[in-house]
Amino acid sequence: MKDDDTLRTYRGKRHFDTTSEPRGDGEQAGGAPRFVVQIHDARRMHFDFRLEVDGVLKSWAVPRGPSENPHDKRLAVPTEDHPLEYREFEGVIPSGEYGGGTVIVWDQGTYEPLSHDRRGRPVPFDESLEKGHATFRLDGTKLHGEFALTRFRGGHEGDEPGEEAWLLIKADDKRAVHGKPGTPDPHRARSARTGRTLRQVAAEEPADLPRELGEPS
């Protein structure tokens, strides 16, 4: 488990006596690194793309969602690190809480780091993210094949989360999709964990959730 300093921002934005989001107190990393893509119906509908790196989930808000079409260059805005337990979170964040709205796990699985230097030598994944370009292969329920995260704005020392901007791009490999949209309609998408839609999760966990009060997490 990563030390408390890494999750201080995450915990500081949430009241765990109100929200059912995990505080992040126990899960240990192990085995192949994991990823999760959550659909978050907050103030603005978006997808949250999270990769397990060094004991936490490195996270990006992707407004239009990851695409399996290599022609789609998806904006990805970094957010605070989340605890490993968050990859299983699905439910309703109460109104008034940070990120108030409904969350489902759209995809989940493992990934393989692929980053290397100019000589073809492997580069540690956290180091490749620091440098602003990381490649990886996803093996999920829905997403498969090689992707890249590339920083194109920000990333200087002292930047706060949200001041950076990245692109999430699918490689043109055998798992790529051509000639049609590579991302589903989030309103019709179903959870990879439970098969539920956003509407079904919201109905099963009643709450007053005025979207204008929420903020993306």
Description of the molecule:
This protein has helices spanning about 10, 125-130, 200-205, and strands at about 35-40, 45-55, 55-60, 75-80, 90-95, 100-115, 135-140, 145-155, 165-170. The chain is mainly beta and about 220 residues long. The chain has an eight-stranded antiparallel beta barrel with strand order 1-2-3-4-9-8-7-6. Strand 2 (about 45-55) and strand 3 (about 55-60) form a beta hairpin.
Outline the fold blueprint:
Blueprint: H1 8-12, E1 34-41, E2 45-53, E3 56-62, E4 73-82, E5 91-93, E6 101-113, H2 125-131, E7 133-140, E8 144-153, E9 165-170, H3 198-204
Antiparallel strand pairs: 1-2, 1-6, 2-3, 3-4, 4-9, 5-6, 6-7, 7-8, 8-9
Summarize the structure.
This protein is mostly beta strands and about 220 residues long. The protein has three helices and nine strands, in the order H-E-E-E-E-E-E-H-E-E-E-H.
